[in-house]
Specification:
Strand order of the largest sheet: 10-11-15-14
Distance between the termini: 90 Å
Radius of gyration: 37 Å
Largest sheet: 4 strands, mixed
CATH topology of one domain: Helix Hairpins
Strand content: 25-35%
Order of helices and strands: HHHHHEHEEEEEEEEEEHEEEEHH
Bound molecules: zinc ion
Number of helices: 9
Helix content: 10-25%
Number of strands: 15
Oligomer: single chain
CATH superfamily of one domain: DnaJ domain
CATH class of one domain: Mainly Alpha
């Protein structure tokens, strides 16, 4: 039993009286369906909603059994038989969840039974989120870039404007869900689940003759290329959200979001540590011992000069402020410069002699002595 039935005045929708004959109903429907057929007004959302409403009303009233049931439910409903939920202030609900569906047009147009044309439109639906991924050069990830993403998505079929019906034919209200697009299934036990109707796949309408282009689905796969701005400072593996760049919403619902997973290619020289950039620079033995001022490359900028103090051990890290990746707040992180003392692997004769004289002059005893201190 479709709870939404009692909220709607199908007679009014078709512009007929409560005692209209079957042929009056058919006549009224044909005229309205012709006037409001989506083919006649492509892209007109209001006409499409109206058409759906007309089709739904006809689907119920043209079936003697359903019409009888509907009349009984309406009579009970208007006489207050459905509890107080409809007139109280607590009965607001959105969506198609059955029961309690109180919409604003009730407030504005006078409660059922009274005058006021009531147009009930399909519920707003948020567009689906989309997922994509992209691979960036290291530099582009640091500075931000614009990438082209080829997205495929589902849009209303351009031939039938989403109705799924062959040109010149008219969709019918789905007999299974009676136009709601939802069906209730018992999932073993006391719980029931509401899910999209599997006859009409949630559209509420079925077609007898399918559109040749979309074969009745009403949807068309489309692919478009989108320019997407990737903010500065993204990291490898990061998933960024681009609000409103997903599938278009339906019936005034918001667009979905686009999520882009970013892969960043490694750089030959630089690495990342959070927002900081890292670089390892070789220094010679004498630079480490005697101290030196060395030039260090930066990403996309002029080299910076770093003072390596006398007596710098291997592996010490220096910080070049503001030479890293941009942070969210617009400031820039640092470049972490780690020195790596080079050992001459093939010393010349002169170098060898110099190191030998260093050895002879060295005054520090055994550097490993502390390892054995306190031992045996
Ligand atoms: Zn259905
Ligand atoms: Zn189509």
């Amino acid at each position: 039993m479709n709870n939404e039935w009692f909220e709607k005045d199908f007679y009014k929708v078709l512009g007929i009286s409560k005692d209209a004959s079957a042929s009056d109903i058919k006549k009224a429907y044909r005229k309205l369906a012709r006037d409001h057929h989506p083919d006649a007004k492509p892209g007109d959302k209001a006409a499409e909603d109206k058409f759906k409403e007309i089709s739904e009303a006809y689907g119920v009233l043209s079936n003697a059994e359903k019409r009888k049931e509907y009349d009984e439910q309406r009579a009970m409903f208007s006489s207050g038989g459905f509890g107080g939920g409809r007139t109280g202030t607590g009965g607001f609900g959105y969506g198609q969840s059955g029961g309690g569906g109180f919409d604003f047009s009730d407030l504005l147009g006078g409660v059922f039974g009274g005058g006021g044309a009531r147009t009930r439109s399909a519920p707003a639906r948020r567009g689906a989120d989309l997922e994509s991924e992209t691979t960036l050069a290291f530099e582009d990830a640091i500075s931000g870039t614009t990438v082209s993403l080829r997205m495929s998505s589902d849009e209303p079929c351009p031939t039938c404007h989403g109705t799924g019906a062959k040109a010149g034919t008219v969709p019918r209200v789905c007999p299974r869900c009676e136009g709601s697009g939802m069906q209730t299934s018992a999932s073993g036990g006391v719980f029931t689940m509401t899910e999209p109707c599997d006859v009409c796949r949630g559209r509420g309408l079925v077609v007898d003759e399918a559109c040749d282009t979309c074969h009745g689905s009403g949807r068309a796969a489309s692919s478009r290329t989108m320019q997407v701005r990737i903010p500065a400072g993204v990291k490898d593996g990061q998933r960024i959200r681009l609000k409103g760049k997903g599938t278009k919403g339906e019936n005034g619902g918001p667009n979905g979001d686009l999520y882009v997973t970013v892969h960043v290619k490694p750089h030959r020289v630089f690495g990342r540590k959070g927002d900081n950039l890292t670089v390892t620079v070789p220094v010679t033995f004498d630079e480490a011992v005697l101290g030196a001022e060395i030039a260090v490359p930066t990403l996309g900028g002029a080299p910076v000069r770093i003072k390596v103090p006398a007596g710098t051990p291997n592996g010490r890290t220096f910080r070049a402020r503001g030479k890293g990746a941009p942070r969210k707040d617009g400031t820039k992180a640092d470049l972490l410069v780690t020195v790596e003392v080079q050992v001459p692997t093939a010393p010349t004769e002169g170098e060898r002699a110099a190191v030998e004289s260093y050895r002879d002059a060295r005054d520090g005893g055994d550097p490993r002595a502390t390892l054995f201190a306190g031992g045996a």
